[in-house]
Known about the structure:
The complex is a heterodimer of chains A (115) and B (113).
Chain A: E1 3-7, E2 10-14, E3 19-26, E4 32-38, E5 44-50, E6 56-58, E7 64-68, E8 73-78, E9 87-94, E10 104-105, E11 109-114
Parallel strand pairs in A: 2-11
Antiparallel strand pairs in A: 1-3, 3-8, 4-5, 4-9, 6-7, 7-8, 9-10, 9-11
Chain B: E1 4-7, E2 10-13, E3 19-25, E4 31-37, E5 43-50, E6 53-57, E7 64-70, E8 73-78, E9 87-94, E10 103-104, E11 108-112
Amino acid sequence: AQSVTQLGSHVSVSEGALVLLRCNYSSSVPPYLFWYVQYPNQGLQLLLKYTTGATLVKGINGFEAEFKKSETSFHLTKPSAHMSDAAEYFCAVSDGRTGFQKLVFGTGTRLLVSP
Amino acid sequence: DTAVSQTPKYLVTQMGNDKSIKCEQNLGHDTMYWYKQDSKKFLKIMFSYNNKELIINETVPNRFSPKSPDKAHLNLHINSLELGDSAVYFCASSQKAGEETQYFGPGTRLLVL
């Protein structure tokens, strides 16, 4: 079975500061990894994903994440936080090799950005 | 030109009632999903259909029955609603199964009184 652990239910940063949201996964097969963002009262939007190939993945809105197999991690970063980044962020894992993608989500991290 | 739409957006009902939530995608995708997000924001997959065929059925009470009349629609019918069914239900779709990105609808907020 696959699982995801997101460390920290809340992360607070100042505008302009580095954003680091942590995600560790557990998977017995090579994982596909995703970061989704959820703004208040909205659905989820894909930020970025790792399937195969380059381990540093760039996404929308200046976010990026690095797949580190040795650490079973897929942390999300952004060099400089913006007020509009305040939202709930979800890390997810799936085994795409089975042919049918079932996303297993972490419990989410709320990013708070202060002026 | 909404990609994945759900109706209704809000649903308030009494315990014991039967209700349906509708989902439509205009992306031409083959695969659709239902997720449940509880009050602690935890998201869990419930069902998935690929070309109108059920392919994922998680441990969900029999009171929940998905129906896919065609590739673009996946509806969720819930019988005998219980307090614990209160949650936000998200529909999603993807081009096909596998590594494809899932596109989520705006969610239906269900409150059972």
